[in-house]
Amino acid sequence: MSIAFAKETVVIHAIKYGKNLSFSSAYKDELNQQLPYYVYQKQFNGNEFDVQVSNLNYINVDIEYSDSWNISTELLISKQLVKEKGKNKANIIINPYRLNGQQLQLLQSFDINIIATDDNSNLRPSSTLQSYVSNSVLANGDWYKFGVSKAGIYKLDFNFFKQLGMNTGNIHPNNIRIFGQFGGMLPELAGADRVDDLKEYPIKVITQNPNQFQQGDFVLVYCKGPDLWNYDGTKQQFKFTKNLYSATQNLFITTNNGSGLRIGSISGNTLSENFATSTYDALDFIEQETENLGMSGRTFVGDRFINQTSKVYQFNFPNIISNQPLKIWTNVVAVANSFSTMNISMNSNSRNISMSPLQQEYPAVFSYGMTTEQSFLFNNPSSNVQLNYQYQSNDFSAKAYLDFINVQAKCNLVYDGTPLYFREQQTVGSGRITKFTLSNANANVEVWDITNPFDVKKINYTLNGNKAIFTIETDILKEFVAYENTTSTPTAYGKIANQNLHALEQQDYIIVTRKGFISYAEELAQLHRT
Questions:
Q1: Which candidate, 133, 154, 132, places its Cα nearest to that of 251?
Q2: What's 203's DSSP letter?
Q3: Of 83, 150, 283, 462, which is most buried, counting CB atoms within 10 Å of its CB?
């Protein structure tokens, strides 16, 4: 059964600010800061819906745009179900731009119809209900907090347990357990998928006595860290996503809450491959969050350039394949009254990024800086990559800032005695089974599948001379680590109090404040209670 709501006609009132557009109900895409999207919301009782649009009316617009924006020739729509104040809303995000030949056009008006497709428009089907645990993991037992600053295998030895403040005289190795979130930033959208409660991490425990954790013993755990690399299928590049709110990923360890989860193993020599690789995508980045141009908001930038100045950024990629192009993804910000240019060069490669001026006639719009984000290829890279950034402008007072540089290099898969984290985008495909060949290995090297930190597996490979060979399904992008030992140690924070947020009654309004403002927060809360 479907229920169609009354059709509405929507008019987008666009306002031109110099060479940019804005309008009410705009949604800002951080990648295309000059092109906002249109957001339409409709409250309804269902949980599943379709969208129909008709009577599309486009107008020509005169703004400068980049081919990197990938503007379609057709209308692009995405939909979400969101919950606001306990009520469901259909959230429709519309890209109102299209290319008609070489002409950029804006969708000025259209008719929209939301159709609820639930079997019962007032009840959520049981198959879509989100289940929640009734009690938090941290509710019982003794818990200790530690943090990691980046992705990697971390070693928690006997002395680290002491730093946490644990009583190390009576720790049974089987009862060591670590819990945490996936890594990276928590989802910002209310309806996004998320881990309900802290989830257990599989760990490797090395002990001399199976019944007593003691000096010389240690625990290994893989953590994603506060920041994440994500693969962009459109650009076919990896992009680094820096955590805007925390420099650490925090985890929690206990030794008196039952037996813990351990890293299991899988065979790496039972499947027949249909793809083979001995290369991987090596990743590196620069993103220094040192200055906030508007003294507000979430966007911070790094190095400052004045006119005619240049800076060199260095990256090192051992075992790079020189006939494979280097992939670069960068974002720069200009604070200038006229068009300016950031030239990026490496050896004989060069790229000019044209940067728009501030919109002086409307100073409230883009008044702190104009961002330009681009991705491109440089040929014939060497292991020691040097990227030269040079800023040029006719405006004597102009400044520019580096937001970030992401660099992706194709390298031979060679172990060098330190933990090697690797992934290979070319291996991904439906039904794909890939044979990986890791050179310079030895019998002490372990290979882990670390794609999912909650399901880390040791891969039992075949050692042929100094080559570790394993075969594994790669329907999705897989990530691995090859290592013998690690020196990375977390930061110990110590014991924490028990907490049971999941057992709290549902609240209509929550105020988060610092201790010094509690009395004012209570005054505000009382207004809402009455």
A1: 154
A2: B
A3: 283
CA-based torsion, 29, 30, 31, 32: positive or negative = positive
| Token pair recorded at residue 249 | 């990923």
Under DSSP, the state recorded for 306 is E
Q: What are phi and psi of 204, to 5 degrees?
A: -115, 125
Three-class SS of 24-56: CCEECCCCCCCCCEEEEEEECCCCCEEEEEEEE
In a 3-state reduction of DSSP, which class is residue 190?
A: coil
Closest CA to 52 of 4, 122, 120: 4
Rounded-to-integer distance, Cα 468 and Cα 448, Å: 12
3-class state of residue 522 by DSSP: helix
Cα separation, 506 vs 476, whole angstroms: 38
H-state helical runs in 79-180: 158-163
> Are the C-beta atoms of 98 and 58 separated by less than 8 Å?
yes
DSSP of 76-87: EEEEEEEEETTE
Match 């000025």 to its residue by tokens. 108
Residue 273 CA: distances (Å) to CA of 62, 224, 362, 456, 474? 53, 28, 60, 22, 10
Contact 129, 11 (CB under 8 A): no
User: In 3D, which of 157, 261, 152, 162 has the Cα closest to residue 218?
Assistant: 157
Number of residues in the chain: 530
Nearest residue to 481 via CA among 511, 461, 465, 499 = 461
pLDDT tens by residue, the chain, 530 residues: 333 445 566 666 655 544 555 565 566 554 444 566 777 877 776 667 778 888 888 888 776 666 555 677 777 777 777 666 567 777 787 878 888 877 888 888 888 887 776 544 432 333 344 567 889 999 999 999 999 999 999 999 999 999 999 999 999 999 999 999 999 998 877 667 778 899 999 999 999 999 999 999 999 999 999 999 999 877 789 999 999 999 999 999 999 999 999 999 999 999 999 999 999 999 999 999 999 887 777 889 999 999 889 999 999 999 999 999 999 999 999 998 888 999 999 999 999 999 888 754 444 434 578 888 899 999 999 999 999 999 999 888 899 999 999 999 999 999 999 999 999 999 999 999 999 999 999 999 999 999 999 999 999 999 999 999 999 999 999 999 999 999 999 999 999 999 998 888 878 889 999 999 999 999 999 998 88
Strand runs labelled E in 450-496: 457-460, 462-464, 467-473, 479-483, 491-496
> Distance (Å, rounded) from C-alpha 153 to C-alpha 485?
9
β-pairing, 326-335 vs 399-412, is antiparallel
> Three-class SS of residue 189?
coil
**pTM for the complete prediction?**
0.75
